[in-house]
Specification:
The protein is α/β, with parallel strands linked by helices. The protein contains 11 helices and 9 strands. The chain folds into 2 domains: 178 residues, Rossmann fold (3-Layer(aba) Sandwich); 63 residues. Helix content is 36%, strand content 17%. Strand 2, helix 1 and strand 3 form a beta-alpha-beta unit. It is globular and about 50 Å long.
Length: 259
């Protein structure tokens, strides 16, 4: 699959993968800053942003989409950074195709399976929205407010609304495919072949429960050269809550000063 992407800078490649409901736009500010040091590629994963839609959606196909992206650009090796859904994709990619990964950065996600129900709830809410009755983004926000009281989460989800040429609204997300495959999104990452032995950085939010102390043994087993850093004053959305700390840690790690 030919993924949509944005690119900035020059030099050693840094490929950034967003999370569920996200898109490359979410990482533009940090991407431009990292582009002062690296050639940054911000990808839209399949069924997200401006990338193509497909019924199949799991970490195997996502990792192969990434492989195709690198091969199409004759990139024999790259630094890979993934957040949440993108983090699990990056993990599996590093385990499946370690020769393509110089350094791996995983942002606030563990390789284990999760039992969160809110993803399915969010998808169902978006699927059930009657977009024909929406004439403005303010109206769409009001529709969700009764079920999702957190303004930041609503705004994040509604970034996926776009206005068509005839003035209607439509979703950038392939909501039916995401809803049908949400259980695959929650699955854990395991590869029988073994481990990724390259330099690895895991970043977790101080206020997030996505990476717990109980996850550390599995992380170390799959990624023996791992370094774990807790980002202060950050929830699951580290790049929004404490971007400067995240920026500095990634630069330090990629330049070989954080091993």
């Amino acid at each position: 699959m030919k993924l949509f992407y944005r690119e900035f800078g020059q030099g050693e490649p840094l490929v950034i993968l967003h999370g569920l409901f996200g898109m490359s736009d979410n990482w533009v500010t940090l991407g431009r800053k990292w582009a002062e040091h690296f050639h940054v590629y911000l990808l839209d994963l399949r069924n997200h942003g401006q990338s193509p839609h497909a019924a199949e959606f799991n970490y195997e196909v996502l990792s192969h989409d990434l492989l195709e992206f690198l091969q199409d650009r004759d990139l024999p090796q790259a630094n890979i950074l993934g957040h949440s859904l993108g983090g699990k994709t990056a993990m599996l990619f590093a385990l499946r195709f370690p020769e393509f990964v110089r350094r791996l950065i995983v942002v606030d996600i563990a390789p284990r399976a999760y039992t969160h129900t809110r993803f399915r709830q969010f998808l169902k809410l978006l699927l059930n929205m009657d977009l024909q009755k929406i004439h403005s983004r303010i109206e769409s926000d009001r529709m969700l407010a009764a079920k999702i009281p957190q303004t930041a989460i609503r705004q994040f989800l509604l970034k996926n609304l776009r206005r068509t040429d005839d003035g209607r609204f439509e979703w950038k997300l392939n909501l039916p495919a995401l809803y049908e495959n949400v259980d695959r999104v929650l699955e854990g990452i395991e590869v029988d072949a073994g481990t990724f032995n390259g330099p690895t950085l895991f970043l977790r939010g101080e206020k997030s429960d996505y990476i717990q102390d109980a996850d550390i043994p599995q992380i170390k087993r799959l990624f023996p050269q791992v370094r774990l850093v807790t980002v202060p004053n950050a929830t699951h959305w580290l790049h929004a809550d404490n971007p400067q700390f995240l920026f500095n840690e990634v630069i330090r790690f990629l330049k070989g000063n954080g091993d």
